[in-house]
Design goal:
The chain is an alpha+beta fold and 313 residues long. It is 41% helix and 16% strand. Strands 2-1-3-8-4-9 form a six-stranded mixed sheet. It has a three-stranded antiparallel sheet with strand order 6-5-7. Strand 1, helix 3 and strand 2 form a beta-alpha-beta unit. Helix 10 runs antiparallel to helix 11. The longest helix is centred in the first third of the chain and has 27 residues. It is globular, with a radius of gyration of 28 Å. 36% of the residues are buried. About 4% of the residues have low confidence.
Amino acid sequence: MKIFRLILCILLLSALLLAPPYLTRMARRDFFAEHRRLTEPSFSGTVTLYHIVSDRTHTGSLTNWLSTMAEKYEKRNKGTHILVEGMTEPFFLERISYGRIPDGVSFFSGVIDAEDLKLSESTPVLLKEGLFDLDRAVPYCYSGYCSVETDLPKAPMPEEDTVAALLCKAEAGVVTDFRSAGDCVRNEEFGATYRIKSVGNYTDQVCWLGVWKTAGEEQSKALCGFYDFLREEAQQQTLCGLGAFSVLDGVEDAAPQSDWKDIYAAYRTVLTPDPFALCRNRDALGEDAHIAKEGDPEAKARFEERMAQILNK
């Protein structure tokens, strides 16, 4: 018992000797500041994303959509700023020639070559049938084609996409992209005279995300984080506001009007070319397509052979 009391006294004396410095340190701490302290961001700075507007969605602006998503992402990732700049393809090429290089690019199939991009670190997602991730780019939305008809001779017709016209199943009318068809239907004078019909599920209007080859490691990781964010279900569901299709297998796309239902049903799966192979063959395909439309069988054969090599089947 005496030994126990002795040990207890030693412990109490030790506590009294050590407690004052500890209590002093604790008194000097700002518990409220520590509680409110935020975790340091993994990246702090601005990354530049060029969106190349070579194609357009049924309505609205994909550049504005990307900017809105960037603001949403920045709230979740303090310290990261995504600067989205939209531009035409010629303006993009002009900027590159002047040395105004982006960190990342958003582009439609056939615009960017694989050699201009770094290996992608984006997270794989379950894509709709016919779509695919590549080692240097990932898809995040797409649009398509339909035929436009009218019985009114004076009603203006959209420009036909020659390549799509040779690949799509159009019995009549002009094969054109969704935006051009939508502009016809929205025409205040002649809109009611147009008929919009499905022409299958071919599309080269898949929009991709890539990291430019000169981007730094931190910028690359920041962009891939943003790309993963864009391919989350919550963000993908908002694409229907543009009349664009989500790439996710689990997202149901909504047709803008009832007469577009068959068109949207056809595009639940897609037939699309490799975007980089299309880039290398785009000029030759376009030239052969125009000659083939004039009735040249040799040009049609060259076109079909070249397209068969780059389509994802």
